[in-house]
Write a structure and sequence with these properties.
Keywords: Membrane, Transmembrane, Transmembrane helix. One of its GO terms (molecular function) is G protein-coupled olfactory receptor activity. The chain crosses the membrane at residues 6-30, 42-61, 81-109. This is Serpentine receptor class gamma. With 203 residues, the protein is mostly helical. It has a domain at 62-202. It is built from seven helices and three strands. The protein has helices spanning 3-32, 39-60, 85-115, 120-127, 133-145, 151-161, 190-202; strands spanning 64-68, 71-77, 170-176. Strands 1-2-3 form a three-stranded antiparallel sheet, sandwiched between helices. The protein is globular.
């Protein structure tokens, strides 16, 4: 059995486990949690539903990660998927970034709860669930317009990964910092650097 097959089996097993554990967690939060949790219960429900969707996406949309030299790409093959591959790849990247933002919201809530601030319940119920909205919007646009398929990432996929094979059925998102120009000379891809800086700042 090849290493690639082993990795695919591990990913599938972990995907099933994540769906199971998140479903159990959601059930416990909704039906077994004490009333004194207050707004925190709804924050936990929101985070659990989000992670359940993310786990489902990770399970149903097999992706390959390629990294070499100054390039990094997450690629999906339309032949292996039922849904439009470009949409799934963008959603996969988008939900990964949003998941990190959600962790931030969770820890902010716990910090404020520990401080026992006045009017805490009203503040969190109105504002806290909407805090990731701005990172959502920014991350979506960065992934779509900066990390989407472009000349540099296509060059990386053709030359570094597939050795000039066809990329017709593929969708990929990522960056390539030092692509090569027509004369074979490396140059700095500021497009990718801007995207990396923006995403790192948001996270």
């Amino acid at each position: 059995m090849s290493l690639k097959v082993v990795v695919e089996i591990i990913e599938k097993v972990c995907g099933v486990l994540s769906l199971f554990t998140m479903s159990v967690l959601l059930y416990l939060i909704i039906f077994k949690s004490p009333q004194r949790l207050g707004v925190y219960k709804y924050l936990m429900i929101y985070l659990s539903i989000f992670e359940l969707i993310y786990a489902s996406l990770n399970f149903w949309t097999p992706s390959q990660i390629y990294t070499k030299d100054s390039g990094f790409l997450v690629a999906m093959d339309q032949k292996l998927m039922v849904f439009p591959v470009g949409m799934c790849n963008l959603l996969y990247f988008f939900m990964f970034g949003t998941s990190l933002a959600n962790f931030g919201v969770h820890f902010i809530y716990r910090f404020l709860a520990k401080q026992r601030m006045d009017q805490f319940q009203r503040y969190t119920s109105i504002h806290l669930d909407h805090m990731p909205t701005f990172p959502w919007y920014c991350l979506y646009n960065i992934y779509l317009y900066v990390f989407g398929m472009n000349e540099a990432t296509e060059q990386f996929m053709r030359l570094k990964v597939l050795q000039n094979d066809s990329i017709d059925n593929l969708s990929f998102i990522g960056f390539y910092i030092y692509p090569v120009d027509q004369n074979g000379k490396e140059y700095v891809n500021w497009h990718s650097i801007f995207g990396l800086t923006a995403v790192s700042t948001l996270i």
